[in-house]
Amino acid sequence: MTLELLFLFVAGFFGGVINSIAGGGSFITFPALLFVGVPPISANATNTFSSCAGYLSGAYAFRKDLVAHRAELPRTVLVSLVGGILGAWLLLQTPESVFLEAVPWLLLFATVLFIFGGRLNSALKGLASHHKHASAVGGGVLLLLLLGVCVYGGFFNAGLGIITLSYLALAGHTNINTMNGLKLLVSSAVSLIAIALFIYDGAIAWYEGTIVLLGTLAGGYVAAHISRKLPQAAVRAFVIFASCGITAYFFFDVYLRG
């Protein structure tokens, strides 16, 4: 039990560091919960719980950057809440065996987004600059895209930030601080409403989730002090290496081991 506690705390710690510097901490914390025996759906719900504090504190840190967009914030939060609860409901309706088979594909999707997300954002920013008001896409379609992003986030937390940044680039945002603030606001709203449903359903493994949460908070705090000393390219390369390895492991475990 002591080794399990230490393992979860260390996983949360590194997840918190990675989230603060490069993003992608769920590639560490979600598999860690599975490895200690938390069932897949519960591990996903618990990972959402463990990540939420970081979203909230991050959104608060960017509050000044969000003020300029306060007119659109209520609509963004409302869509995020609707999408988050829909995604969480879909997760809870999914049989454990089906979700376990989907995990490698979800991790692969999130991994590809992490690797190519920067290029995707650049391409979308270029598109947005040519269609400043997104008239070709339409405001309604953008809202539907945001809803889809939030449904994904309620169903599977890993990769939510990357997808949200891509959506914001398509919507015409170019200021990185504003984009990060909106990303964290969306992630917070999606996670909070999903957690409420997970609590009602009893899907959260509180002991394991709290240990990971404490580790995440410690890692985020340390990262705030050492982030200037750590080369982000090296951290990103580590996340890519770890996510590829973890994804390959789950494909082997789910589809080949049996």
Structural features, described:
This protein is mostly helical and 258 residues long. It contains eleven helices and no strands. It has helices at residues 2-21, 26-35, 40-61, 63-66, 73-93, 96-130, 139-155, 160-170, 176-201, 206-226, 232-256. Helix 6 (96-130) runs parallel beside helix 8 (160-170). The longest helix has 35 residues, at 96-130. The radius of gyration is 18 Å and the shape is globular. The chain starts with a helix and ends with a helix.
Please sum up the structure shown.
With 258 residues, this protein is an all-alpha fold.
How many helices does DSSP assign? 11
* Overall pLDDT: 85
The level of helicity is over 70%
Strand coverage percent:
under 5%
* Secondary-structure class: mainly alpha
Main beta sheet strand tally, sense and closure:
none
| Structural domain tally | 1
* Basic shape: globular
The number of distinct β-strands equals 0
For this structure, the quaternary state is single chain
Detail the poorly predicted runs. none
Task: State the main characteristics.
258 residues, mainly alpha, 82% helix, globular
Strands, helices and their partners?
Blueprint: H1 2-21, H2 26-35, H3 40-61, H4 63-66, H5 73-93, H6 96-130, H7 139-155, H8 160-170, H9 176-201, H10 206-226, H11 232-256
Helix pairs in contact: 1-2, 1-10, 2-3, 3-9, 3-10, 5-7, 5-9, 6-8, 6-11, 7-8, 7-9, 8-9
